[in-house]
Design a protein that fits this description.
Length: about 350
């Protein structure tokens, strides 16, 4: 496992609200999260849990009706939460923190060759010109695994497959030499084989380009092989955070158990896939206690009343559930998960 180094970004008690037809929706409810230099962190959660809003807030891309109501986003000694001009954000966006989204077509200009699109970023962000910019563009294309680069340079986005287009978007992001790369569902639109190739590519580029990567996904299975740490999000809060093996094989929050149980890899043969019952809470209303309590078969009375603090499981593993309070009754994870956890522990011991 990689040694955890210094913090590159620190989110402190962040609250983000949106105003919609005179009503206020709280999308992020007091999140604190550190991002360490050189790591890959996956933020996992159901649709609507606030993953995208959280990432948009660190790039100054919140929708106009949204604002940071409270908290700090510390990067390079600055508090990004205080930024209020586009000029300020332009010093960060792309240059320091870049994003790769699910649909490469929305990030690419259909009317320009892909070579020109990458080269524009090389010129703008690396200050290279002419032959040097062209050579750098070809190098980026090679680095993202595209062959026959001189020919490919002159082609348009529609001449590439979905997976190849995603590689081009990654090349554009890298052309800006960012320190942090946010990958928002980068492989959701791709089939499984291509998905694995793109994740592998990101992993290799991470080393080569000294990147810190944040993966955003609703699918725990996708990030198991590439993330160093996992943060589990639910209804605008982080309920559990830890090293990937800690969350996978020693998860403590019942929501994490539910996410793990719904992984197809864990499905028992001949049985329907587990799905989490109920719906997430209404974010227009104040949430008392643990937001997951109404859907949590293991919820205690206090879960409905008081927001649980982060209980420490190890130096690197924390979970917001009253089940970890020393006074709580002992609750075991679901039986299917216990076997999975045991397998994981054995595997970790053998390594
Ligand atoms: N501009 C907006 N106005 C009002 N509500 C918004 C706005 N943008 C996001 N939200 C709300 O904020 C909450 C979090 O949304 P977000 O897009 O971050 O979820 P997500 O976890 O990224 O989901 P998905 O995986 O579907 O993208 C949702 O309830 C969403 O409806």
């Amino acid at each position: 496992m990689k040694q955890i180094k210094s913090r590159i970004l620190a989110i402190e008690n962040l609250v983000i609200t949106f105003t919609l037809r005179g009503q206020v929706l709280t999308a992020i409810r007091g999140i604190s999260l550190d991002l360490y230099k050189g790591e890959s962190l996956a933020i996992v959660g159901e649709s609507g849990s606030g993953k995208s809003v959280l990432m948009k807030s660190i790039m100054g891309l919140l929708d106009k009706n949204g604002s940071i109501a409270q908290g700090q986003i510390i990067y390079n000694g600055m508090d990004l939460a205080l930024f209020n001009t586009e000029q300020q954000w332009l010093t960060i966006r792309g240059k320091e923190i870049a994003i790769v989204t699910q649909d490469p077509m929305t990030s690419l200009n259909p009317l320009k060759t892909i070579g020109k699109q990458i080269e524009e970023c090389v010129v703008l962000h690396q200050g290279l010109k002419g032959k040097a910019a062209y050579t750098e563009t070809l190098k980026l294309l090679t680095d993202v695994g595209i062959d026959d680069v001189e020919k490919r340079y002159k082609q348009y986005p529609h001449e590439f497959s979905g997976g190849m287009r995603q590689r081009i978007v990654i090349a554009i992001a890298l052309a800006c030499k960012p320190k942090i790369l946010i990958c928002d569902e980068p492989t959701t639109a791709l089939d499984v084989t291509i998905q694995a190739q793109i994740l592998q590519l990101l992993k290799s580029l991470q080393q080569k380009y000294s990147l810190t990567i944040v993966y955003i996904t609703h699918d725990l299975g996708v990030v198991a092989k590439v993330a160093d740490r996992i943060a589990v999000m639910y209804a605008g809060d982080i309920l559990e955070v830890g090293h990937t093996h800690e969350v996978f094989f020693n998860g403590k929050h019942p929501y994490t158990w539910a996410l793990l149980s719904s992984l197809p890899q864990l499905g028992l043969k001949g049985q329907p896939l587990y799905s989490i019952k109920g719906t997430p809470p209404n974010l227009f209303k104040e949430i008392k206690g643990d937001a997951f309590a109404p859907r949590n078969p293991f919820a205690l009375k206090i879960d409905y009343e008081v927001r649980p603090p982060f209980f420490q499981v190890s130096d690197t593993h924390f979970a917001r559930t009253w089940l970890l309070d020393p006074r709580a009754p002992k609750v075991e994870p679901p039986a299917t998960l216990q076997a999975f956890f045991e397998e994981g522990r054995q595997y970790a011991n053998e390594r």
